[in-house]
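$ ./design --mode recover --in tokens.txt
reading tokens...
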């Protein structure tokens, strides 16, 4: 039986998590409270989406406000080059601007969102918009499902029930985010590779 994963929030983090989990073979449901995915993503980088930064990891970490050293382990698992490869392999041409900042050549954040959505479709991720998660349900120290605003409960094991009377501990679903710093000046370059499919 396939592992079933529920992802709450169709922002940058949720979109990437959904792609990664589905690529690894899970049956993924993505829940988003807005009518469409990636609302904030479309506003990033002044509507152009500063996808990542092309400077070496050490330099990026040095420019993180406070102590950025905690990011070392994240970078070893998924680096700025991995995210560039992710988009380039899906047909998104990227360009480098000042401070190593990477943007889609189209200068449109929508290009990035569309690449995500195309990938979610290819991987058969179930996308449910206009769905607000009210609570994450935890029983015996384990996440057992999510309670939706309309009282429906979704379980990662693939079943769905109406609201039960069983008491549950509550956990606020909070999204985390980082944004990359501005770095030094280097000339603009274009990065292109043929479409994967
Ligand atoms: C003006 C501005 C410009 C920025 N520019 C850049 C940039 O160029 N490059 C960059 O890397 N970063 C940029 N950022 C930062 C970037 O926007 C965030 O890092 C990124 O959006 C975080 O993604 P996320 O998925 O963690 O959160 P979000 O994008 O906020 O996504 C969270 C999603 O979860 C949904 N959600 C929340 N609660 C629930 C619930 N209970 N039930 C269902 N759905 C729920 C929300 O509706 C939302 O769609 C910018 C930020 C701002 C404010």
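writing sequence...
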């Amino acid at each position: 039986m396939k592992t079933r994963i529920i992802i709450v929030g169709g922002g940058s983090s949720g979109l990437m998590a959904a792609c990664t989990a589905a690529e690894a073979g899970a049956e993924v449901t993505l829940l988003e409270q807005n009518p469409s995915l990636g609302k904030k993503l479309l506003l990033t980088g002044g509507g152009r989406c500063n996808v990542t930064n092309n400077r070496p990891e050490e330099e990026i970490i040095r420019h993180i406000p406070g102590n950025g050293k905690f990011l070392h382990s994240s970078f070893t698992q998924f680096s700025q080059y991995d995210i560039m490869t992710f988009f380039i392999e899906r047909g998104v041409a990227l360009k480098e601007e000042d401070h190593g900042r990477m943007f889609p050549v189209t200068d449109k954040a929508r290009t990035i969102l569309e690449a995500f959505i195309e990938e979610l479709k290819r991987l058969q991720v179930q996308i449910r918009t206009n769905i607000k998660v009210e609570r994450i349900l935890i029983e015996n120290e384990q996440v057992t499902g999510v309670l939706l605003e309309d009282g429906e409960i979704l379980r990662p094991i693939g079943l769905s029930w109406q609201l039960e009377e069983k008491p549950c501990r509550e956990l606020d679903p909070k999204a985390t985010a980082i944004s990359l710093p501005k770095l030094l000046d280097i000339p603009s370059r274009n990065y292109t590779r043929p479409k994967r499919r």
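exit 0
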